[in-house]
Amino acid sequence: MKKVIVSIFVVALFATFSFAGKPFPADNAFWNKALSKLAEFQLTGQSKQMPLPYAYNALEPSIDAKTMEIHYSKHHAAYTKNMNDATAGTDYVSKPLFQLFTETEKYPVLVKNNAGGFYNHLLFWTVMSPVSGQEPQGDFLKAIKDAFGSFDKFKEVFSNAGKKQFGSGWAWLSVNENGKLVVSSTPNQENPLMSTTEVRGIPVLTLDVWEHAYYLQYQNRRADYVDAFWKIVNWKEVSRRYDVK
Ligand SMILES: [Fe+2]
Predict the structure, then answer these.
(1) Ligand 1 centroid from CA 3, angstroms
(2) 187: number of CA atoms within 13 Å, CB side?
(3) CATH number, domain at 53?
(4) Is the peptide bond before 61 cis (omega within 30 degrees of 0)?
(5) What is the pTM of this model?
(6) 214-242 pLDDT per residue, tens
(7) Which of 230, 238, 32 is CA-nearest to residue 126?
(8) Does residue 99 lie in a domain region?
(9) 14 alpha carbon to ligand 1 midpoint, in Å?
């Protein structure tokens, strides 16, 4: 009887640790392939803000120059500085951001918020482009159709994720560990890499729906901002990111 009770206790303990925090599969082939394909996986909590890949006015009229200037030089710069300050002198100072994200609950909320803010904006700048008229092609387009039925339906689902996110947050298109495309939204500066987030995956497209991303130009009309976003998506970069699958 005593053996049975001990066995039940051990099984219960194992189950508790197995499901706590829903750890991202850091040791599986999917993760390792992604690590080798995306240079951003080398970044740590001690990182500089990357140069914006275009001029502040390059995304007009979808996003105005003043919004881009404040967003990049004030908001993103602040997340970057605060992340560097929050990780300096800690025993995780040289850990890759992605490792921090996969065990988010182990670190102070300050690290989660600012490392998330640093990374999410870094990604956001790169998935936009002043080159218009692009659309998904080839394998990536097929994956979109497989997951959502059509490109238009995908745009509707992603747009709704951004429009309906309550308060500040982000809309995401990610590749999950089965290689499938999934849409989700997150509050604050969370992202799909984080262990505290329900829908996990490698982000390939994101949209910032914090008011600081659109309020100067669109005021309360978040939906108009989301609709205008489709004119400036850098589908070439998004497709490249999809190749981590
Ligand atoms: Fe932002």
Answers:
(1) 56
(2) 4
(3) 3.55.40.20
(4) yes
(5) 0.87
(6) 999 999 999 999 999 999 999 999 999 99
(7) 238
(8) yes
(9) 40
